[in-house]
Each structure stands twice: as C-alpha cells, then as structure tokens.
Amino acid sequence: MYLNKKKAILVISISVLVFFFTYTDIKSQEIKVTDGDTIKINGEKIRFSGIDTPELKQTCIKNGIENSCGIKAKKILTEKIGNNKVNCISEGKDQYKRTLAECFVNNESLSRYLVQSGYAFAYRKYSKKFIKDEDQARMKKIGMWSMKFEYPWDYRRKN
Length: 159
Known about the structure:
Layout: H1 2-26, E1 31-35, E2 38-41, E3 44-48, E4 51-52, E5 60-62, E6 65-67, H2 69-81, E7 86-93, E8 99-105, E9 108-109, H3 110-116, E10 121-122, H4 131-140, H5 152-158
Parallel strand pairs: 3-8
Antiparallel strand pairs: 1-2, 2-3, 4-10, 5-6, 7-8, 8-9
C-alpha cells in the first residue's frame, strides 16, 4: 500500500507540473490595436518603445491627395498581427503608466516592421535602435516617405 501512495503522489505531482507548464500556452490573448504604436493585450496598454507613428487623425499628401496616414499605420499593424500571438519585452512604464515594450509576432519586431514599411519613425528622442531601418525606408521612398507629412511629435505639438 505504501508503494501505491508513492505512485499516486508522483502521478498527481507530474499532472500539476504539466498543467502549470502548459497553462500559459492555453491562456488566450485578447489583442486590441489602439493606433500604430499602441496595443492592448488582455487589458494592458502597451506603447511600442523606440518608434513613433502618425496620430489617427493625422493626414499626409501624395500627388495632391490627402491620405489618412494615421489610420494606415494602424491598419498595417492590425494586418501584421492578424490572429498571431504577440510577445512583448517590457522596458518599464512611461509617464502615462503604459507599459513600454518591443513586441514581436513570429519573432519579428513589430516596431522594426512599421519603420521599414515607412509608417513609423525612429523616435530618436528616446532610442537610436531603428535609425538604420528608417534610413532605408526614406531612401526607398516607402510609405510616408513618398508623401508630404508632418512628424507625429510636431503634429501633436500643434494640435
């Protein structure tokens, strides 16, 4: 009988360990894209560190036609995330108590993706991480670099 108790305890212990190791994989992720550089994961507001995207109401002009570049940045991010799981590396909190983080989908940085697509800027005031990506997008005239635009930080200051 003593051997049966040991076996029972062993089986229960293993079951509990398996549950805890797989629980995070089972837990669903509720993702909401707020704008081009801010998302909510399970209610936690996350601001992408090192980049800045146009504000939702911000527009750009290409060939004399006004484009909603803020909405476009949000759309690009939403499409990139799709139904994928987002993993973020937290870098602390900002003055608005948002989590500052670099987030990834399938091990690809969402920040780098947005900058390379021309709908985000390296936020030099806070980071030098994405400058090369921005330089490449500007040289190739990708995204906003093919339009007349205002930097998001200048737009916010005026509006």
